[in-house]
Every structure is written in structure tokens, then in C-alpha cells.
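We emphasize that the prediction below concerns an isolated chain of 1035 residues; any contacts that depend on oligomerization or on bound cofactors are therefore not represented. The input was used exactly as deposited, without trimming of termini.
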Amino acid sequence: MNSDTNAFKDIRISCVELSKSAFLPIESFDPNSLTLLACLKKVERKLSTHKDDSLSPKFADYVFVPIASLLRQPALGESQTEYVLLIISHLLRICWSSNGKFPEQLGQELFPLITFLISSDKENQSLNSRSDEFTYAGCVALYQFFSSIRSQQYNNTFFSNSRPKSLPALGHSVTILLKILEQSSHNNELQLKVLASLEILFQDIISDGEMLSFILPGNVSVFSKILTKPGRKIHYKVCVRTLEVLVKLLVLVYDDFSLRVQVNRLTDIRALGEAELDPERDQPFSFNEPIVLPLKDSKTHRDTSWLRATSGQINNALKAFIPKLLIRNNKRIDEALTTFVSILLTRCEKSLRNCEKVLVSTLVSLQRDPMSKLPSHLEKLNEVLNENLHKLSDIIRFENAERLSALAFATDVIERNNKKGMVVNGIVKCLFYSVNECIEPPNLINHKEKLIEQSGPITAMVNFEELENKNAAIVLPRLSKNMSLSLREFTCHMGSLLLEKNVLNDVVIELISEQVDSPRTKKAVALWLSSNFLKAVGTLPKEEDDFLKFESIVDDSSRMVEEACLTVLEFCNELSQDISMDIEGKGIKKGDEFAVCTILSSVKTICSVMKDDFQSELIDYIYIVIDALASPSETIRYVGQSCALTIADTLYHGSVPNMILNNVDYLVESISSRLNSGMTERVSHILIVICKLAGYETIENFKDVIETIFKLLDYYHGYSDLCLQFFQLFEIIIVEMKKNYINDDEMILAISNQHISQSTFSPWGMTNFQQVLNILDREAQIKDDIMDHNDMESAKNGNEPSNFQEYFDSKLREPDSDDEEEEVEGGNPNDDVDQWTSPIPRDSYKILLQILGYGERLLTHPSKRLRVQILFVMRLIFPLLSTQHNLLIREVAGTWDSIVQCIVCADYSIVQPACICLEQMIKYSGDFVSKRFIELWQKLCQNSFILKELRIDPTVTNHEERSIGKRVKFPPITENALISLVHMVLQGVKITEYLISEATLEQIIYCCIQVVPVEKISVISLTIGDIVWKIRNVT
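Result of the prediction step, given as a C-alpha cell string:
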């Protein structure tokens, strides 16, 4: 009571001021008076501060007095009406909201008044021009009115047929709310308030399906329009609330129990004869359709005819807005839609029987069934599944992954609840034809594009030292990676169902056997499906209770599909051989790439399924896996990598090298058979892969294969690509040989320095004790390879220097140890058979000599790429040959002229590697090539194209015409060749600086400082430093 008193005191003055305007005579009253508006705002502001149900109805009676007077005026402005509605809503909220406070008679009088204030015309045209604030005030007034009615005892009878006077206002209020809902898409709060008002009206006040059936069509129509609008116009919260209100309305109207609906099922054919048929109504088709059982002595609006007519409208509405909501892909909307559909299938299963298909299809699309309604609708679910299967090609082609996942969901429900038969068998065949059709349409069968092969050595394509399982997914031709993954998941799921039904083994065998004589694409698709089906074997059980049974389940599953696994492996082998023969010399195509990747993935899957039992089968497939690692296709390489690591993890404790070493005999046999069959295109790349993965140890097992390669070089030396591949292989062999036998370059220098001294005035340049022993103990020294048989005999007869001084004098008299080249060539490499000092075994050393020999012969080949590769290989060989010095100098003498010819050629891309190679020869041969180097410089001055690029005459001795530093800016290829040439020349100068005239040395240094900074040259030796100083300072 005190609260009423305080509230009265607070609002009394505002009410008095409002009364002054409200009680004015009609002729003096201004409906748009600003004074009146200010008074209304003041009253509304006072009322808004009070809490719900905090004041008595007497307070409302006092405040309503000036409001009632205002309502007697002939007109009222829009803004003034807006605040009148707000004042009424506040009075309803704070004074008339609880039970017993709102007299029914007052409600009957107030309700039509509210609807009239909001919209005076039944068509609600005036609402089109009203502001949002006005419509919100009207909506709040209706919401508060319905909330107050809900709290009263008479709530269920307030709107009834016994009181027909209130029904027009009821209909009017519903149309007002629907109008506001439809035209206020920009105001989410207003729409939510409308939906809350309708929810109270339908559920808590009317709650009579018979009465609601009269207003149902209009509500469904507006709700459908709201739900079909795009997401940018309708907030997801509005969609969720609309679905909640709509489902409550539909349940109230179409509830099976309250509507007394039964399905008129035809169980006996004789019932047709007993039925009284009306041909005009076409009743024979009413069987198996819902009918309404009428109550005795009662006439209702909702009869069978009404049900057929309106349920059709409901079906159309559902078909209109459900797809739109699904497209929005909103989690909250999907949850609300799931609840919406589940409730209808529970409460209105019979009455909305014609909507069953769209409802079932919705749960399938959502992939949710929280109330487990689908098992009781298997017939319709099968129908939905079959329709989607007929469109499977389109689903795949247009990459609709969600529909594919929905198919898996539907299949799973059917298989787990259908005891009569299996639909998954039909899905397998449909899946096969659909996938095949999508990846190779009929109009493209004869137009397979060739795969662009990657150039460069295979070692640049894959980092073999850091081989990792990329778990590369197979991308189906003409499909994206995401769709390929979705399709794989779907196929694996089908495999799980087949395994549960114990038919996986039979299905795989049948699928494979049917494609024996099919085109390659169909074979690949069948293999891809079978492999993914088999991935189901060994998956973890879903039930936690089965966790401890996992090992036995996996073992049993593996044994169940053993025959299928072997069938798939055999099919892989046949398909692989077919592809290998077909692509030899032609290049791989996209379709073949998919087939090869499928083969590798299948081998990987079978290995994972068979585990240790796969060991006995590996010998037939190890070559396929290694061959994939050498493929020009990046996709094939990574799938092969994944396959290799899976096999290694399963059988060889994760070691790929051990896998190769344990199966090297089978690899040798496979490679040899292919070489003998003329299939030479990829052999070198395969050997490169083997060598890189397992090291040089494997090459020792391939000696026969390497000998065959040397023979092929004899026969096919004109084929540049083949020769290039072989020398790329030789490069890897040399690198791996060095890794296996030589620790580092210092080890090579240490071995070679035992035989040579880098100083011209030997033995003053000796660097170790072994060189001293070699001088003092000549009889124990290895016979010199540069002497022929006669020279050695004369040496034995006493022509050997008797002391150090004589030896020193002889060295001065013989400035070069290779005066007679034929002496070297006539040497016998077997003379040192008992003095093998190289850490490289004889057999391996022999391979180096053979590679060098074939390389020297092919240096005249017209292919530039081949010559560059050969020079690069020779550069690697000479340091290794230096570990057996007597054989090194023979090979140096034999190849010197060929490499010199490369240096003086006009192609600078050849000159650069040739200079690098000759630099290595000089470095490790020492003073053996002194004379040759001096002759080389003379030849360079006369014939070298690269030296002419300096645009100077090396023979000019006039210091006034000389300059130091670069005079010309060279292109990169020219500059690189010049730098390599200078480094080679400087290496030669180190061993000949005291054997050539000062003028010649000055010429050489002058040319070098045109390319290389002076500082780097002057530090080589004191003599060279003096020459540099002279060039810079003497004019």
C-alpha cells in the first residue's frame, strides 16, 4: 500500500497536467498537440521506473482516467497514440499482470481498444506508414495484454466460441502481429517480440486446435515467407524463434491424438468391394492415407477434407523454407530445425503423413536424429536414399560433400535397423559407376592429357635424407582434393558396414573380378574403392566396452578378408605391369597417375591389414614402391613415400634402408629383367633412389646391373637422354662411394700427399715423413707409372740417381715428368697389385675408371646437357682416383686433351665445368702435369674464346697500355666461366711458377687480375705477390 501511495504522489502532478489536455472540449482539442505529447511522455517515463506487478489495480484506475478521456476524443496523433499504447502496456505490466488483478470484463473492453489504436483498418494498411517506434509500442501492448491474460484463471476461455464478440479482435490482433513480423525484417528485437506474443496467444491462451485451425493458413504463409528470406535479411535468432512458434502451432492443430487421426490402411483386397466408393471424390486412393474420425453428435471444422487440403499446404511450405534454412548452414538454425522436424514426426506422424518424405529428408540432410525417429520411417528413408543415389554422379561432379555425408548417415541408419536385406550392396555398384562416370566422362575418354613431367635429376625432387610420411591423399581426376577426401571417407564408411555384415570379402572379390577385362580407368576405380573398403579392417570399435577386445577383433577381421587382400594385390601387380609397358617412352598421363597412386595406396592398405603376413608378399611389390619414388610425378612420389614408410613401419621397425637391403636381390632381379626387356627409361632414376635411401652398400649388389648399363652406353651412346640419366646415376654412385669410404677431402689429400709434393722444387716442398722415406728408400718405393718397361730396366741397371744431389739435378734437367705421354699410356695398372693403398676397394675403383672412360668418350657428344653432366661427374672422380696415385696419373694423361678441348670451345656453359674439372686434375696430380699446363696456357692464348672476352692481349708487355681491375661487365654465364678459368690457371701456376719465364707468368697474372680481386691473387705465393706488385707499380 505504501508503494501505491508513493507512486501516486510521484505521478499525480503528471496526471493532472495530462488531464488538462485530455478533458478539453472536442472543438479545442488538438490531436497532435506537443503539450499533450510532453505530458504523455512524462507519465510514460514515470511508469517505466516501476517493477513488474509492483502496484495495485487502483493505481492503474487512477492513471487510466485521463487516458480514457483521451480515447473519447475523435482523433489522436501518431506519436500521441504511440505513448498511449506504451502507458497501457506499463499499466498491464505493473498493475494487471498477476492472477486476479485483471478483471475479465476489463480485458474484453481493453483488447479491441488496443487493436484499434494500433491499426484502425482491418487490412492494416495504416501500418505501412507507421514508424518502428509506433509498431514496437503496439507490439509491446499486445504482448503485455496476452501476458496478463495468461496469468488469469479465465485464460482458456477468454477467446472461445461462446464469446463471439472477442473473436474479430482476436483475428485482427493476429493479422497485426503477422504484418509487423513480415515488414520489420530490419528490426530483430521487434520481430522477436511479435513471435513471443504469438507464442503466448497460441500455446497459453487459445490452445485449441479447432480455433487455431481458422488462423493457421495465414500464420503458416507469413512464417514461410520469413524463413525463406536470405540470411542477410533475417537474423538467425528470428529463424529459430519462428520455427519454435510454428511447430507449437502445428502440433496444436495437427496433433494425432487430439485430432483422432488414423491411417486407413488396406490390409485385405476384399475391403475394396466392401467399401462404399464415391466416384466423384476418387475415394479408392484414400487407402493408406490419414482420415479424421469424427466425434459423435459433434460437428468440427477439422475433418478429413480439411486435413487433406491443409496438409498439402503445409507440405508445400516445408518444401519452400527447409532447403533455404539448410543452405544457411547455421548451427543454431540446424538445431532448431532438427527439433522442429523431430516433434512433427512424433506428434503429427499420421496427420502430416504427406509431409513424411520432406521431414525424413531433412533429418538426413542435417545428419541428426536425436529422438531416433528415422528407424520408424525406414520405408520413406529408403525412398530418400534411392533418390539421392540416382543423383550420385551429380553429387560427386558438383562436389556436394554434405549430401555425400548425408548419404552415409542414411545408409548407416537403414543398415542398423533393417533386418530384411542390405542396401549397401546396391550402393557399391552405384558408387562404382558414378565415380567412373565423373572422373572420365564419355566425351573425354579419348582425350587424356599428358602429365607435365618435372625436369632435373630425381635427387632434386625428394629429400631422401629426411623422408617423411606425407600421408598424401589421392586426388581423383577432375575432382578437388576436398571432394576426393569426402568420397574416400564415404567409401571407408561403406566398407565398415560391409565388414559388420560379414560380406566385405565377397564384395571386394566380386568388384575386382568383374573388371578384369575392363578399361584401365574402370580398373583403377574398382581398385580405389576396394582399397578404401578394406581400410575398415582394423578400425577401433565404437563401444568403449569393446576396447579390450580390439586385438582379437582386428585379427579376426584380417583373416576374414585375407582372400580379398590377395586378390587386390594380384590385381595391383597386373595393372602395374600394364601401365609400365604402356608408358615406356611415352610419358605418364593424368589417368595413369591416378591408377599408379591407387596401386600404391592399395599396397599400403593391404600391408596395414595383413601386417606380418605381408612379408611373404612384399617381394612382388617392392619394385613397384621403389619405382614410385623415382617417378616424375610429384603426386606418385609422395604416395609412394607414404607406402614405403608404412611397409617399413610394419615390417622393418621403421627403417626404409633395411627394407631395401633385405629385398635387394628381388630389386636386382626386377631391374635386370627390365633392362633385358629394353625398358631402360627409368632404371637409372630407380637406382638413384635405391642408392640415396640405402647407401653405397646396395650398389655393390648391383654390379651386374651396372655392367649392363655400361654395355647400353656402348650400344646407345647416340641417345642423349638415356646417357644423361646414366651419368646422373653415376654422380650419385660416386657421392655415395665417397661417403662410404672417404671421411672428408682432407683424408684424400693426406693419401695423395704421400706420393706427391706440390712444390716445383721437390723434395723441398715435402710436408710429411712418408715423403722423406719415399726419397731415401727408392727401392721400396712404388714403381713410377710414367716410365715404360725399358725405362724401368735401365733404372734397375744403375741409371737411378745414386744420391740426393744427383736426384735434385735430374729434377732440374727434367722440368716435367710427363715429357713423353705415351709412357704413361703404356704403363701397366696391375704392376702395383700388391701395393693397393686406396681405401676404395679394387672393384669399386674399377667402376670409377669405367665411368671416367665412358665419360671421356662421350665428351664429343653433341648434347650440351650431357657434356656438362659428364664434366661434373669427372670432377667428382679425380679426387677419389688420387687415393691410388699411380692409376690417377695414367687417367689424367688419358683425359687431359679431351677436357682441354672443352675449355677452348665457344660454349661457356661447357667451359665452366671443364675448368673446374681440370683444376681438380691439377690439384691432385701435382707436378706431373707441369709441362701440360705450360702448353695449355699457350693454347689458351691462341685459341681460347673465353680468354678473348677480357679484350686484352695477354702477350702485351708495354706497361703503359695495361690496367688493373675489370674493364668489362660480363654476363653471368661469361663471368662464371672466367672465374672458373682463373681458378684453374692459378692452380696450375702453383706448380709451375718456377718453370716458366717471368714474362709468361706476368701475362698469366695480368689476365687473372682482370677477373679476380688482386688481393686474392697476391697471397698465393711470394713470387706471384712480386709479379702483382710489379704490374701495379712498374710503368
